[in-house]
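Q&A log
Question type: sequence-to-structure
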Amino acid sequence: MKNKLVSLLMTAALIVLLTAVNAYCGQPPIKIGITQIATNPGIDAIRDGFLSQMKKMGYEENVNVKYIQTNAQGDNSAAQSIAKSFVNEKVDLIFSITTPSSQMCAQAIKGTTIPLIFGAVTDPVAAGLVKSLDKPEFNITGTSDKWPIEAQFDLLLRLVPGVKTVGIIHNPGETNSESNMKEVEAVCAKKNLKTVRVAVSNTSEVYSAAGSLVGRCDAIYVPADNTVISAMESVVKVSEKNKIPLLPGVSSGVATGGFGTIGPDYFDIGVESAKLADMVIKGKNAGDIPVATAKKYELFFNIKSAKLTGVTIPDELLEKAAKVYGDIEPAKAATKKSRRKYKKADEKKD
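Response status: OK
Response body:
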């Protein structure tokens, strides 16, 4: 028995030694810079999906890959500095999350051979990141989180049939927001919905902007705007206090509040981005890889928020939903992958 134990220990020690020798003698770890414009459930889910998929594909941190994870905390100048630091650090690849961070990185890598993979850029062509979705060029590709805008407003009209006017808060300084707003306005016009737009320039202005919509709209919509999404709690607070139905465009935002939406799962956006990164690491030019888009859209609901704003969600929709939130911790709920079973509203844990 004693000899068997000694043998097992020696075998385990040999495995550890061989792993260390292989790591030392082999190629140095691939250096990947990860940058995100801010912290919010959706952005964090993209990052987590990316890291999870990279690990599934065999990239072990501090063995064959090294990550430099950064966060601009909503500051564009910080995002620019981060992008430049990646170039100075001579990273092998950059993964940038959201449009602002991706634009900063695209500028920084000009004149270098560093490939850029972006995640959750609503309109990469309008953002100046790629020439086209099929042929990106510029050594850049990534994933678009383009939303099914018309389907989202169909959901609003089905669950809140009396809506005539929709209030929208947005930051006109964000390219992604302006691109998204053009489509939102077109869809609302098609459905005979009036819009009331309130502009903000930073997250501290979102609460008062949401408050200014009280009495001026029948529902509130949160567009593809990082400034507003990062201050989702402020919009939810105004929505629930004044019983105004809230339709978040971003699926991850439903964890915080709003009656629900239809859209891509942000964890999966990260997964798709990792698959592109793997192709580039294995030798393919990023600019030759078509931009990936969401392959399917799913329903997300928040029963607690729906009840507080007078919205009734039919059981048939709840049963089809990828996720139904109730009185659970938003941060934990939002980072879970889709394809989960329906959770009843009275559950306290995910």
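Response note: The two ends are 45 Å apart (CA to CA).
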